[in-house]
Queue: 3 jobs
Job 1
Amino acid sequence: MTDRPEPIHAHAMENLQFIRDAMSRATEFTAVPGWGGVMMGATAMVAAVLSGPPDGSRRWVMIWLTDAAVAAAIALATMAIKARRQGTPLSSAAPAHRFALAYVPPLVAGMVLTPVFATMGLTARLPGCWLLLYGTAVATGGAFSVRVVPLMGLSFMTLGAVAFAAPAAWGHWLMAAGFGGLHIGFGYLIARRYGG
């Protein structure tokens, strides 16, 4: 009895799955910086200690805005380093553009709402606003990234909702838990699973 040749469609499904997987990897933004997230978390812990509970003062807001600027610098620098190491420059990568287009609008909303909250005497509620909108930015941008990033965004959003419901005096601890703890935890996970 002779062996019959294997039909061509037998390998078609395997080939299609390989192509789908390759296309999925090509559309993911993988330069989310894990170790950068850990560093950002560490600076937030320091900011929480320096700021203390929200007290309606300009000093409190400025400590957190300064930390946000430092965190943004860390994120951009470590993202560029990771992208260069992966051989996918940020300036020409379509996944990076999609990530940015989804990530930036909620941050702009936070920049608009911050002075609104401050001038209306709602400074003590800024932790909820910041955590919720940052979480929205991470969740929407994360839709174009590795699976753990949207989960991180949802965790920030949940903490933001808790911050609105919790006593205002807990604001700095909730900021430490989110911008500190979540960044450190998810940053470590991203660094270990997704290469830095």
Note: The longest helix spans residues 58-86.
Job 2
Amino acid sequence: MADKPPSGKIYFRVGSVLNVDVRITEEYWQFLITVKHPPMRGREEDVKSVLQNADEVRVSKIDGNVYLYYKKDEKRFLCIVVRHLNGEGFIISAYPTDALKEGQVKWKK
């Protein structure tokens, strides 16, 4: 995983429930929806909603700078994975899931 945020034109930026300014570049969003997780295509507003109104945020067991933001939709959770670095955050993944990953609960609704 990257030690520095991706550069390029910011696609969107939103404040998270942890008061962290989280962003994603246009180029990385395109990579995410075409290569990593095509089901996320067209779900930008859902991603923003998860970050702003998460049900739960956990710290990754593998990397203490990676936070997993979860929010339940109709039948599954949406997970937005964010690297926190120097007081800011950038999205490294976003996907629907049936289960929350293990990790320390950092914030809960």
Note: The beta strands are 10-15, 21-25, 56-60, 66-72, 77-85, 88-97, 103-108.
Job 3
Amino acid sequence: MITVKRTILCLSLSSLGGCSQDISDLQTFISQTKSSHVGSVKPIPQFKPYESFSYSAAELRDPFVATVDIEDDDTTKTSLLNPDSTRPREPLEVFPLDTLSMVGILEQNAQLWGLIKDPQNIVHRIQVGHYMGQSEGRVIEINESAIYLVEIVPDGIGGYIERDASIAIGGD
């Protein structure tokens, strides 16, 4: 047991002796690194002094007030055009028009059908007169390259206008 204690004591003394190495080369490296690196700080930017602005057009017309009275006139073209709310909706009218894509055409018994793929990857057959899209889009022409529609959209002043739209083949 005494020999084990002496062995441990000798080993611990020898390990302490290894900790007292010369570290002057490390200190020299640190001092050289500190002296060689000179940091630079950018100067504070100079700001231009604030120039006040005096609004001198207060007596002019307010751009947010209408200068022309807009009257409801039942004889206007936009008031005659209205979406048909009694018409039964077709399956492709639940999808926005830009989410539908034309994938081809089909000719059957001398009738031309357009093939439309919806966002759920289901292909539908449509003909001239069918509806698709969320703006009352009625198909007016089908050919090999595109399907043409006429949509009924609000005109911004309480009425509706017709707008042309199309879906080209391969347009995902």
Note: Confidence is low (pLDDT under 50) at residues 74-78.
